[in-house]
Amino acid sequence: MDAPLMYTSSLGVRKGTWTEEEDFLLRKCIQKYGEGKWHLVPARAGLNRCRKSCRLRWLNYLRPHIKRGDFAEDEIDLILRLHKLLGNRWSLIAGRLPGRTANDVKNYWNTHLQRKLTTAPQRSQERKYNNALKITKDTIIRPRPRTFSSIAKTNVSNKSMNTVHKDESDKETVLNICDKIAAAGGGGGGEGVQWWTSLLENGNEIEEENKLLPNLLHEEYSPPLCMQQRQSDGWDFDLSADIDLWNLLN
DNA sequence: AAGGGTGGCAACCGCCTGAGT
DNA sequence: AACTCAGGCGGTTGCCACCCT
């Protein structure tokens, strides 16, 4: 693209497609100062971009080890399983797919997988369709993740779920999750999945999905290649707040 | 060849949460 | 306790390339 689309907000901040020069400046800045402190990044990098734009560009495009191109079969399979378990928790799903970003997974789901699973209307008709449904805040149940403090995260990811935690609230949170997993059948077998799916409102849809994907939940299954290889390819994946999703998936 | 429709993807928007003051 | 701010997330939009008629 010779002249990327570019415009400027009322605050004078550039928006739109990033140029190669901007990518270079951002990459250099992150290499020098590291990730984080995004409010300082535009000034440090000499970019006329907002902090969020810088963060997004880094996370979705410039970060090392990001995989581009088509999703492998095992990745698709894992997305389907995790989506059944977690819903639209793209960041969590992406966290189990080395090299894939939440945006990638979300886009792939919206453009490839969603249409496979449903007879969704064409995108040009989706707005009408959604308006007709009159979806309101009241009708949507939106489970949100618990965020652990950084120290609790370290403990959870490095050891096990019932290790010592920074403070009682963190410990309580983790133990609550452990209880739920235990109640779901000790973290193994199909019961775990049932516990999760019971959170979803429409059981009929789940049944329909099961018909469409008969092998999704019940067949003998081993971790896909993309997960087995994650250690060797150097991908720094995040296991924080890990509740052993893999066991729940089996 | 032209024009409309569609798919894919990058980027933006608005909201939520936790930390700091 | 109330407020502000940064980080993070999911939903949505806009652009472009390709396809079809």
Automatic annotation (TrEMBL):
Its main location: nucleus. It is found in: Nucleus. Residues 13-62, 63-117 form the HTH myb-type domain. Keywords: Activator, DNA-binding, Nucleus, Repeat, Transcription, Transcription regulation. The keyword Ubl conjugation does not apply. SUPFAM superfamilies: Homeodomain-like. Residues 10-62, 63-113 form the Myb-like domain. It holds the Pfam family Myb_DNA-binding. InterPro entries: Homeodomain-like_sf, Myb_dom, Myb_TF_plants, SANT/Myb. This is Uncharacterized protein. It comes from Datura stramonium (Jimsonweed).
